[in-house]
Design a protein that fits this description.
Elements (H helix, E strand, L loop, with lengths): L1 H8 L29 E5 L3 H12 L3 E6 L7 H5 L7 H16 L2 E4 L5 H7 L3 E4 L3 E3 L12 E3 H6 L7 E5 L3 H12 L3 E6 L10 H12 L4 E4 L2 E5 L3 E5 L5 E5 L2 E4 L3 E3 L4 H5 L5 E3 L9 H14 L3
Parallel strand pairs: 1-2, 1-4, 2-3, 4-15, 6-13, 7-8, 7-13, 8-9
Antiparallel strand pairs: 5-14, 10-11, 11-12
Helix pairs in contact: 2-4, 2-10, 7-8
Length: about 300
């Protein structure tokens, strides 16, 4: 939807979530072939990492891509789970196929620790390890009835009964739609006064229409204060405290860049480039663009 959003809603130049060179062909016209088989490590096989690895390989670097899971894809795997987003799986499969053709050395099920990276002696390390969900510092967040929206979307956790979704952004709404379809009684809470604030109107209106079919209790302008085993405590827009029944609580409060291993890699290689969600959380479009640009301009 990036192409429609930019042209129709924002009246700015064309762009594509799949092909980050769209609209920039006059700048990104040729890859500079100065890799000369020098080793480079890319840590993380999500959209940013896969794009960076492909471009670096096309430039002639000897690229090793590390992915701790059994397969590539990263956030694309989660993004493809909600209803009507099946095409993202095709994007994931295409990117994996392009990597195979590019000659990148792919190591899945491999934790890229200090020793592994040190053995490579890389010219640069591209840190594409994604982001982690935000866990608020509030009483009750560690109770067993609390989980992240990503757990629901991935099918790792299947809440039942009365469910409160905290955060009415796109991820929260996608989780709410899946929960509503499974028969849950929904409450959606957000401290903002409108759901999916800042999301392209066509996308926002489409998902809200589907979520509203499940008749959720929308509590906008409310702030989460505490979680109990059978309820949540909220601060209302007027400053009062309200208790709402909830057997399960699903957190969808956004993500923060994952930077836990940054200092470790700096001890091995002076050139550490954080890309994608590991640099700044965003959408698929921003992740692929970041992977392309960082690899295109690396060591030029």
């Amino acid at each position: 939807m990036v192409c429609r959003e930019r042209v129709l809603a924002k009246n700015i130049g064309a762009a594509c979530a799949v092909n980050a060179r769209t609209g920039r062909e006059y700048i990104l016209n040729e890859y500079i072939p100065n890799g000369f088989s020098r080793p480079v490590a890319v840590i993380g096989g999500g959209p940013a990492g896969m794009e960076a690895a492909k471009v670096l390989s096309l430039r002639g670097f000897d690229v090793t891509l590390f992915e701790k899971e059994s397969e590539l894809g990263g956030s694309l795997g989660v993004s493809a789970k909600p209803p009507h987003k099946e095409l993202i799986l095709e994007l994931k499969n295409t990117m994996v196929h392009e990597l195979a053709l590019s000659g990148v050395n792919i190591r899945t099920y491999c934790e890229a620790d200090h020793r592994v990276i040190s053995d490579l002696k890389p010219e640069g390390v591209f840190l594409a390890i994604g982001a982690k969900p935000i866990l608020p510092k509030l009483p009750g967040v560690h109770l067993p009835n609390v989980c992240f929206a990503e757990d629901v979307i991935n099918g790792r956790i299947i809440p039942k009964g009365k469910v409160a979704v905290i955060g009415a952004g796109m991820t929260g709404l996608e989780a709410a739609e899946m929960l509503g379809a499974s028969g849950c009684e929904l409450t959606l809470v957000d401290m903002l006064t409108e759901p999916a604030a800042g999301v392209y109107s066509i996308v926002r209106d489409d998902i809200l229409k589907r979520v509203y079919e499940y008749k959720p209790n929308m509590l906008l302008g409310y702030r989460l204060c505490e979680i109990f085993s059978d309820a949540i405590c909220l601060k209302t827009p007027s400053g009062e405290i309200s208790r709402v029944e909830a057997e399960h609580v699903v957190l969808a409060l956004g993500v923060l860049p994952e930077q836990g291993m940054l200092d470790t890699y700096k001890a091995v290689c002076p050139q550490i480039i954080s890309i994608g969600d590991a640099s700044k959380p965003g959408r698929i479009y921003e992740a692929i663009r970041d992977g392309l640009l960082s690899a295109f301009y690396f060591d030029t």
